[in-house]
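Q: Given only this backbone (348 positions), what sequence would you predict?
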């Protein structure tokens, strides 16, 4: 069997006579071929982007130098609404209003879970290094979720705030650092959803409630942050889940998602160097530790390595991962209902 990873408390060590960080490495070679990105826009999409930029500037959302003043950022929101200008404007207006009402800046700077280690044990996930094109890798161990334990150590309000804080850290810290390291804009993550240990009993009503809440949050306020999703260690019944779930996903999103069983290493290695993957995912990195992030966003890190003394709990990098898991919950409920109906029918 694959080695398990245990949660360890971080050791706080200060480097003696630490030298200055070396200059960043050469840019990572990459040519964008996906549709809906600044370098691949069609003429009509470029017109929509120009109108989107003008409307946001007119409403005071986009100002020179602020996060909205970026074609990569604007395209992310436009892709979420299939380049429908009116729908994208509604989405951004709702998001800006939510940011103020939710006090997102304060959540990002001040909120912390009462017991993050206990939450991590109940729902292990972490950001660990980068893929071959520079995106942060988010490892989400959905198969090991213990929702009863989650509910004992955190409320759903706290879990939601932690998700907001984690996503804001990703947008404000991880992506800029990864962009500097890659030599180009990075505003998406690669997500590995590990289903090792998954069973139908995992998808109870409490799990579904949490997933529904987080799915809505990610869909409305952090769209298009998942660049690719690899579902590994998928059990046999998961093919049924996927066949239903993909009906609700557009073709572009479907192309992002790779459903793999236990022999996933070959395909995963095409996207991530084995040295950047922990051993339980088939990689060669023996330093994996759930107690802290590792990646270019960590102070003092000059490559994909480096360790952080403060953990940002992972969770999926995009709404589609949760949507897929939610579909599994709904299918499990339907199958349980059918079994009860058949049992009742066959009982004399």
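A: Predicted residues:
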């Amino acid at each position: 069997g694959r080695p398990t990873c245990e949660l360890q408390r971080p050791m706080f060590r200060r480097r003696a006579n630490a030298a200055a960080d070396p200059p960043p490495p050469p840019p990572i070679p990459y040519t964008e071929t996906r549709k809906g990105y600044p370098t691949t826009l069609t003429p009509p999409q470029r017109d929509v982007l120009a109108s989107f930029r003008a409307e946001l500037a007119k409403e005071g959302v986009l100002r020179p130098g602020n996060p909205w003043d970026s074609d990569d950022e604007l395209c992310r929101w436009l892709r979420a609404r299939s380049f429908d200008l009116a729908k994208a404007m509604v989405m951004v207006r709702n998001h800006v209003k939510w940011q103020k009402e939710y006090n997102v800046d304060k959540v990002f700077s001040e909120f912390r879970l009462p017991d993050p280690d206990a939450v991590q044990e109940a729902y292990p996930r972490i950001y660990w290094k980068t893929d071959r094109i520079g995106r942060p890798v988010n490892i989400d161990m959905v198969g090991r979720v213990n929702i009863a334990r989650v509910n004992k150590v955190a409320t759903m309000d706290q879990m939601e705030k932690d998700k907001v804080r984690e996503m804001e850290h990703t947008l404000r810290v991880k992506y800029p650092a990864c962009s500097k390291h890659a030599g180009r804009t990075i505003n998406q993550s690669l997500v590995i959803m590990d289903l090792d240990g998954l069973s139908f009993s995992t998808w109870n009503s409490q799990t579904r409630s949490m997933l529904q809440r987080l799915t809505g949050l990610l869909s409305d306020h952090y769209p298009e942050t998942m660049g690719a999703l690899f579902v590994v260690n998928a059990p046999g019944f998961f093919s049924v889940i996927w066949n239903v779930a993909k009906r609700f996903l557009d073709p572009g999103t479907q192309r992002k998602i790779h459903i793999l069983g236990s022999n996933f290493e070959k395909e995963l290695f095409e996207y991530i160097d084995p040295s950047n993957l922990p051993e339980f995912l088939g990689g060669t990195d023996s330093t994996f530790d759930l107690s802290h992030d590792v990646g270019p966003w960590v102070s003092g890190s000059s490559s994909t390595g480096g360790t952080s003394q403060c953990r940002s709990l992972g969770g999926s990098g995009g709404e589609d991962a949760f949507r897929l898991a939610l579909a599994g919950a709904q299918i499990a409920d339907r199958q349980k209902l059918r079994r009860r109906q058949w049992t009742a029918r066959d009982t004399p």
